[in-house]
């Protein structure tokens, strides 16, 4: 079981992520802001970041956490829209451990988290 914080602003997809990961045996907390991520990251095994939200700068969040050395002990799983391949490269450059299309996150999220903490 992993302790997961998920920064997924889309409430519908966030609930789906929370339910899927919870069914996989993971403890999941949905957070809606960078300060909330910063507050909870030290007690988490995995950070899930939505890169598809227009109003949230997921890559900037990853860069800020890495610059402040807040993700050293926490694995990061980011997901993006499959039509925006440039976002994948930018997320990897920002330090994400695993970057997958949103559709794969929807299908395999729990297994992806297992693989990161396994």
Inertia-based shape: globular
- Beta-strand portion reads 15-25%
Low-confidence stretches: none
**What is the level-2 CATH architecture name?**
3-Layer(aba) Sandwich
CATH fold description: Rossmann fold
Largest sheet: 5 strands, parallel
Q: What's the alpha carbon Rg, rounded to whole Å?
A: 12 Å
- Largest sheet, spatial ordering of strands: 2-1-3-4-5
Description:
The protein has five helices and five strands. It is α/β, with parallel strands linked by helices. It has a single domain (3-113), classed as Rossmann fold. A five-stranded parallel sheet has the order 2-1-3-4-5, with helices on both faces. Strand 1, helix 1 (11-23) and strand 2 (27-31) form a beta-alpha-beta unit. The longest helix has 16 residues, at 102-117. The chain is globular. The N and C termini lie close together (10 Å). The model has no long low-confidence stretch (mean pLDDT 92).
Task: Give a brief rundown of this model.
With 118 residues, the chain is an alpha/beta fold.
């Amino acid at each position: 079981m992993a302790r997961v914080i998920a920064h997924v602003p889309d409430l519908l997809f966030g609930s789906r992520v929370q339910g899927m990961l919870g069914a996989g045996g993971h403890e999941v907390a949905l957070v809606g802001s960078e300060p909330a991520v910063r507050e909870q990251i030290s007690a988490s095994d995995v950070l899930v970041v939505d890169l598809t939200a227009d109003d949230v700068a997921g890559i900037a969040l990853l860069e800020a956490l890495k610059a402040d050395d807040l993700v050293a002990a926490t694995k990061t799983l980011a997901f993006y829209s499959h039509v925006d391949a440039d976002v994948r490269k930018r997320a990897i450059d920002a330090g994400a451990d695993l970057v997958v299309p949103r559709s794969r996150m929807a299908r395999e999220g729990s297994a992806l988290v297992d693989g990161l903490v396994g």
